[in-house]
Design brief:
The complex is a heterodimer of chains A (about 325) and B (about 270). With about 325 residues, chain A is an alpha/beta fold. Helix content of chain A is about 30%, strand content about 25%. In chain A, α3 packs parallel to α5 and α7 packs across α8. Chain A starts with 5 loop residues before the first strand and ends in a 7-residue tail after the last strand. Chain B is flat, with a radius of gyration of 24 Å. Classes of the chains: A alpha/beta (about 325), B mainly alpha (about 270). The complex binds adenosine-5'-triphosphate and magnesium ion (MG).
Chain lengths: ~325, ~270
Amino acid sequence: MGGMEVSVVHEVKGVNDLEKLKTGSILHIQDVYKAYGDNLILDDIDLSIAPGEFCAVVGPSGCGKSTLLRLILGQERTTTGQVLLNGSPIGSPDKDRGIVYQKYSLFPNLRALDNILFGHRLRMWPWQWGARKKELTEKAMVFLRRAGMENHSHKYPHQLSGGQQQRVAVIQALFSRPKILLMDEPFSALDPGAREDMQMFLLELWEESRLTIFFVTHDLEEAAYMGTRLVALSQYYSDERDPAELKKIGAKVVVDLHLREIGQAASPQVKTTAQFGQLIQDIRRDAFDPGYRQHVKDFSLNHPHSFYTLSSYEGGEEPT
Amino acid sequence: MKYPRLFGLHARPGPYLHWVLVALPFAFMICAYLISSHKMLAENPNAKLLPSVAKMAEATARLATEPDPRTGQYPFWQDTVSSLQRLGMGIVSAAIVGLLLGINMAMFPGLNSLARAFVTFLSIIPPLAVLPVLFIVFGVDETAKVILIFVGSVFVITRDIFLATLALPKEQVTKALSLGASQLGVVYRVILPQVMPRLFNTTRLTLGAAWLFLIAAEAIASTEGLGYRIYLMRRYMAMDVILPYVCWITLIGYTLDLGLRLWVGWRYPWYTK
Ligand SMILES: Nc1ncnc2c1ncn2[C@@H]1O[C@H](COP(=O)(O)OP(=O)(O)OP(=O)(O)O)[C@@H](O)[C@H]1O
Ligand SMILES: [Mg+2]
């Protein structure tokens, strides 16, 4: 593994029983480092997510949110560290982990309905598909109707608006029944109206499916409104290392908050409360302000599942 | 305010003027020919260089309706059928091989390492330079001609499909895997359908080169075919056969091109948004 050295001192802080947390979580990330060449992007990420959680992830642009998501997805490999899904190490992308991107989630050569059904089709032999086609089509149409899109089922993606495309993409991902749904800024290209509709639509589906969602966004308000748990990644912090020595400081989890109970979506009214405004201000300062660098010991990690192990990373190349 | 009709970036010729403009260069070419031919024949009625339309029609009709006494075949149709067979076999096999090779090279890094430099190397060899080799190895009958067309087209198609496949967003692969696709499922059910229209377009463009190889091969060793007839007639300076044959080849080529274009537009409506 190149010239890299990681010494993990298993001094766990935050939780009493790491093993229990590991087995109880759907997603368990421990001591994860990710470097591109000499650039350390993710610096010792520890994160454990319970089933059903809507985990919203924010952070300054370029801090490594999408990188972390790609590691969970299996699209890229960690430099070191573990990513466990239901207790077993993850491999290449598979149907346990659904994904919705900001763009390119839909296949341009398939109509909306066929895009939704495609996952099932891919996994079946033609005769199996023939036997289940009718039933699955009806199911897909129920989703489309709920999204107000029954009249668009035969359209190609380029004939749909951005909001409609993302609706289909969300349905497509859910239709394959993943264990966890990963979303990378899925609504960022939408105008405010369409965006709010999508937020409601997603929360509705989440509430009834009890799915676990890992939701990356750069919009703090969206994160604080949608999530049951709010995680902020940031490279704006200080620790014992001399900043001049490091090529670049890698991002850590600097905020990890419990917002509401699993399975309960917030009502849109929360956005108007003073408490909500205060929360946003605090996170903006803690994670987004380059001038305000908290010490690693002072991070606001008060989610009950938050933990961190102490380990260190001595630079080095990513094996290629 | 109106748009200008003809000149400038913002011109909008309108449907009527559009078709007049389309017809104009054709009309010009035909008139120029008729006038020159008329003048030349007025000076010397036996001149062969620019035969009159009547003469060309007569010669073509003879080839198309009178069977050859030796073979009992109609030369014009026999030439057309054998040429199209060779062209079809060469270009279709090149399209299939080019598609499979191009896609797999772009999708599987191992195959990419193995084949990419080699394919690029092979694609640089001028196919006409190896034509004698083909004749020596495969004999002078059909095989060598089809293989020449194949060799002349397959690498261009492979490289173009390779690039088209690379240009597809990487996210689609991850997306398909996350929907439960197998590795082969990704390649053949997600990627392949998306490069199919590109394959047809590439084949359209490659047809020009394929005709070149066909006619070259027929000119050198053949007993029938459009290229064979043209080169045979050259000996007799029979422009009244050569010119209609050139027009006929052009017409076939144009029809193939148009057919493929319409097919892509009809079959892959998502492709040309
Ligand atoms: N393949 C790669 N090779 C080298 N560096 C990379 C690569 N991918 C990402 N990076 C770097 O990693 C850092 C994190 O990128 P990432 O896309 O994860 O950021 P992000 O938090 O998602 O940002 P944004 O909010 O703008 O989407 C960036 O500095 C980026 O330049
Ligand atoms: Mg990103």
